[in-house]
Amino acid sequence: MSLLIPGAKENTRPHTIMPLPVDSQPFYRCKYPRDTQFAYQLEQDTATIADKLRYARITARLEQAELAELVDIDRITLIRLENGQVFDEHMRTSTLVKIAIACGREPSFCCDEYHAFMSGDYGEAIRKMRKSRKWTQIVLADSMGVNPTTVKRWEKRVSRPGREHYYKLLQIITEG
Questions:
Q1: CB within 8 A of 74, min separation 6: which ones?
Q2: Coil, strand, or helix at residue 34?
Q3: Biggest alpha carbon distance in the chain?
Q4: Which residue(s) pair with 15 in the sheet?
Q5: Given this model, what pLDDT does residue 59 score?
Q6: 98: helix, coil or strand?
Q7: Under CATH, to which class is 121-175 assigned?
Q8: Which helix (H) or strand (E) holds 2?
Q9: pLDDT at position 39, please?
Q10: How far apart are CA 103 and CA 109, in angstroms?
């Protein structure tokens, strides 16, 4: 199947994406044996985002330079993402989705629940949660241990809540 990423450069050539075979035969011989070993040993349930990115690229039979060109990012950025040198909360959800699609995976393959939340209208979600409890921004800020201005900035999407604040929001929602 031929794949072109929407918004990619016009002169970008399409890549052929081969799905991962389900039989017990080796899916291909990697250029680097470490990559083959990594792909077979990956535990999908406990894999980090960096591991999922690398796994998607390896099983799609793409070199780092090819994938970087396909999703229109710098090769060094891709290397840093795959090596876990970028904090999860600093990874752009749009980049993770582009990588997953380019590798023939579902868009959410490389994302976790935090990135899914951040890809939507997180400001509106925070505001609705706060309003449903009839809280002011000050009350929410006090319960989370942040400044009220921070909550206001989240709701206006001027800044993003970090992963630790996301988990505090989930805790507040579940506790009621």
A1: 68
A2: helix
A3: 59
A4: 3
A5: 83
A6: helix
A7: mainly alpha
A8: strand 2-3
A9: 63
A10: 10
The Cα–Cα gap between 15 and 107 comes to 17
Domain boundaries, the chain: 2-116, 121-175
How do residues 110-139 score in pLDDT, each as one tens digit?
888 888 888 778 899 999 989 998 999 999
- Is 104 exposed, middle or buried (CB count within 10 Å of its CB: 0-12, 13-18, 19+)? buried
Tokens, residue 29: 């011989």
Tell me which residue has tokens 């999703």.
Answer: 71
Place of tokens 């206001």: 152
If one counts every other C-beta atom within 10 angstroms of the C-beta of residue 174, the result is 7
Q: Is the alpha carbon torsion for 76, 78, 84, 89 positive or negative?
A: positive
Superfamily holding 2-116: lambda repressor-like DNA-binding domains (1.10.260.40)
For residue 8, the tally of other CB atoms under 10 A from its CB is 16
| Threshold 0.70, pTM exceeds | no
- 154 torsion bin: left (phi>0), alpha (psi -120 to 50), beta (else): alpha
Each residue's pLDDT tens digit, 21-44:
444 444 555 666 566 566 666 666
